Amino acid sequence: MMELWFSEKHTENVKLSIKVKRHLANKTSDFQQIDVFESEEFGRFLTLDGLMMMTEKDEFIYHEMMVHVPMAVNPGIENVLVIGAGDGGISRELIKYDGIKKIDVIEIDKAVVDICVKYLPHTACGFDDDRVNIYYQDGLKFIREPKNEYDLIIVDSTDPFGPGEGLFTMEFYGNCYKALTDDGILINQHESPFYREDSLAVTKIHKRIVHSFDIARVYQAHIPTYPSGHWLFGFASKTCHPIRNLRATEWKQLGILTKYYNTNLHKGAFYLPNYVEELLRNVE
After folding, report:
1. What pLDDT digit, counting tens, does each position of 198-207 carry?
2. What is the CATH number of the domain that holds 30?
3. Which side of the chain, N or C, has fewer Cβ within a 10 Å radius?
4. Residue 200 belongs to a domain with what CATH number?
5. Which residues are known catalytic residues?
């Protein structure tokens, strides 16, 4: 019997391979190649242009760390902008907060949303909420208009090449700054510091965010299916500090159920290994 494996190159010399039970979806959109596979170990997983975006087994780590970190710093957040996130996982975590009034999701590729709604309903369930508005357009263009409008911007983009490339530019971060309120927070996925090529992306992103924001910190999580498993996120704000302004008691009182995030882990996530500290310090 023939075995089917999905393999993703993490470097020229390293691959991650997952045994596939079924290939559920395969579509070439105007922007990218979209696939959904089913596996024994990780459940269903989504790939774009052959790169792993999320799996049913470990997506909660990524989505919780992007949403609950800023929400615990400012539980009063009302207006949220999400760029990317066509799988719905970010929206699913955001709608757990009754205080949020508006969630604008900007996704360039409608086909991603359609496929996720059909094949990954556990993640895409976030789109059903009345507060969620999806706009199918380029996030880079959208962000030029709003001024002082959003309390939180979450950039859940693909890697810094292909359709997501523009979401890592100086212009983009400057426009995010303008679109945020005075105590607004920007969260972005920051790539992995481990392999050399990925670490170059980390420094490039960090350099540009530090240029635009007064407060810029990096935090980490362990995500098994991402290159090296060691993944970074960026926290940037004009006034909010991720540790000093953490409102742990207030956040706990909300009674939000999480599988990965808690307020102790929140603090710990900002304590980085020396090699990562050094990487960031070199561009600061």
Report:
1. 999 999 999 9
2. 2.30.140.10
3. N
4. 3.40.50.150
5. 156
